[in-house]
Amino acid sequence: MRIAIPVDQNTKNTDVCISFGRAPYFMFFNTETKETIFVKNEAADSQGGAGIKAAQTLVDEGADVLLTPRCGENAAVVLQKAKVKIYKTLSGSVQDNLVAFENGKLETLDEIHPGFHGHQEEQK
Hints:
5 strands, Nucleotidyltransferase, domain 5, 3 helices, 23% helix, 5-stranded mixed beta sheet, alpha/beta
C-alpha cells in the first residue's frame, strides 16, 4: 500500500501540513517495502485549482491512501474516482500519523470543505 501525506518539509521528521493542495511536498510511504520518497508539490503556487492538481499528482504517483487534516471537494472528487481512500490526520508528526493509521486509529475524512478557490485564507 502506498500512503501519501502532505508535509511541510522533505524529511521524515516533519509535521503534516495543514493544507493539502498548497503543501510544499508530499511524502509517499510504501508499507510493503518501507520506502519513503518525497515529491515536490508543483501545484502549491498555482493561481487556482491547486487541490485538483495536487490530487492528480497523488493519483499519478500511485497513492492508495491519503492522510490529511483537510481536503477540498474538487480534490476529493479526483481522489475518490481514483479509489484513493482519505483519512483525517491527528495533529503532530508524520511518524505519529503513520503509526496511528497502521493501528487503525485514524478515521475517514468525511468533512470535505468547499475549497478556497484561489483564496489563501487563514486555515484553522
